[in-house]
Structures are given as C-alpha cells and as structure tokens.
Amino acid sequence: MWEDVGQQLASILKAQLFPCLLETRAYKILLQKAGFKEPFEQYTKDRRPPFPDAYKGYCDTYAALIKSQVQQQNCLVDDRNLRADVIKGPVNLYRVVNSRGAIPERTDLRRGTADIGDWWFNEDLLENCRERCRTLEEERKRDRLLTDMTPDRCLRTLLRRNLAISINWNAIGAIRQLKLSGTDSIPVITGVGIGMAAYSADADRKKYKSKTLPVAKQKLLGGGERQIWIPWTPERRHIQLWTPRGGLGPNAEF
C-alpha cells in the first residue's frame, strides 16, 4: 500500500494548488523551484495559466520523499485504510503537543522549519474522549474513593492510548486546533495508528526509569484510531491552542 500512497500523493499535487498553503514557506519554495510565477493565486482560478512543465517531476520527487519519511516512522498500519487524500473544510483537526510554548522540530525538505508538527487527529476522537471523561468525573463525584483521576488526566490518558503516543514522545501538555474553513483544503497521508509500547526503544533510561520494567515493553497503547499526517501545515492564522472550559488542568470541565 505504501507504493500506492506515493503515487496518490503525486497525483493530488499535480492536479491543483492549495490556496491555504500559498503562504506556507516550504510549499512556496516547491512552487518557485518548479517555475510558478507570483502571485501564485492566479493558478487557483478557473481560468488559470498552465502549470510549468517541470512541476510534474517535482511532484513525483516530493511525493516519494514524503511517503518514505512517513513510512520510516512505522506509525501507520499498512492496510486498505492507508492512503494519500485531500481534507476539505469546514473541519477542525487536533494535535497534542508537549507544552503551550513553541518547540522547534527538525527541519526537512517540506517546511524549512516549524514548531507545528505533523500528526493530527479528527474532532470525533476528541469528543468521544471528552464524553468518557465526563462520565468518569460524574462517577468520581458520587464516590471519591472510585478514582483520583481528574478530567484533564483522563483526557491525556485516553488520547495517549488511542493515538499510541509513547510517554517519552509527548507529555501532552497542550492541544492545538487547526481550523479549515469551507474554502480550505490540504493534502494529507492518513491511516490507522499502530499500537506502541509505553516507552519507545530509544527512550533515555536515565530520564525514564520505568522503561526498564517488563510492562513498559508491552504494547499497552493500543492505537487503532485514524491518524492524519500533514506534509504542509497552513499558516498560523489557522492554528490556535484548544482548551476546555476551566483550562487543561485539574479544573477542566467537559
């Protein structure tokens, strides 16, 4: 299926430009290298200039490199759910992050530099987790001896399990929301998340002492939910921090 994903992504890129990405630095670099002339918006109109001849070759190259990068992370199940796709708004996508602050991530051919991140998930998953945490909190209020898990800890735990996020990968200190309007669309690679161990193989043993426990090596984080990998993230005006009422802390209200 991975070979199909590379071809699907190349076909998507060749077919259209994505207006909400035209201010994204790395996407602009791709267009400039391929011979597009500014303003790039002219290529999104019904009566548009022809795409440069070199663009198809660039799409093939970028799609193959992007596909390879995602495949090497070994985070998506190789089955019929694995594909390149176009997500169209209006829609909200979400991503868990270490903290509210911006932390630079590794640079690559797609974006130059970013602190936004690649992996996102659907609003349905967030709402399902919130509903389960709401139910648990109601039970906790009726019987304080039942559990000491606060709503924010409940949400973090459920997201970690459903998205299979190893503890050393992400502290889930905050959640970002990507809002796409009705006119926005973006190319993505999507599939079902693979289950993971509580700590990844490369976790620092000194920092994460629990990694040495036998249970830490078991795939306790089941995954199984749809994950969305975004090659080029829209500019920052589309992205904001998401918090429930009361904040993402012990006073969170779901």
Structural commentary:
This protein has 254 residues and is α+β, with helices and mostly antiparallel strands. The chain is built from 5 helices and 7 strands, in the order αααβββααββββ. The chain has helices spanning 2-15, 25-34, 55-72, 123-142, 151-163, and strands at 83-88, 91-97, 119-122, 174-180, 185-192, 226-229, 239-242. The chain has a 7-stranded antiparallel beta sheet. Helix 1 packs antiparallel against helix 3 and helix 4 (123-142) crosses helix 5. The longest helix is centred in the middle third of the chain and has 20 residues, at 123-142. The chain is globular. Mean pLDDT is 90; it is low at 111-115.
Low-pLDDT parts are 111-115
Q: Average pLDDT, to the nearest integer?
A: 90
Estimated share of beta-strand residues: 15-25%
Helix content: 25-40%
Q: Give the overall shape, derived from the CA principal axes.
A: globular
| SSE order | HHHEEEHHEEEE
Question: How is the secondary structure organized here?
Answer:
Layout lengths: L1 H14 L9 H10 L20 H18 L10 E6 L2 E7 L21 E4 H20 L8 H13 L10 E7 L4 E8 L33 E4 L9 E4 L12
Antiparallel strand pairs: 1-5, 2-3, 2-4, 3-6, 4-7, 5-6
Helix pairs in contact: 1-3, 4-5
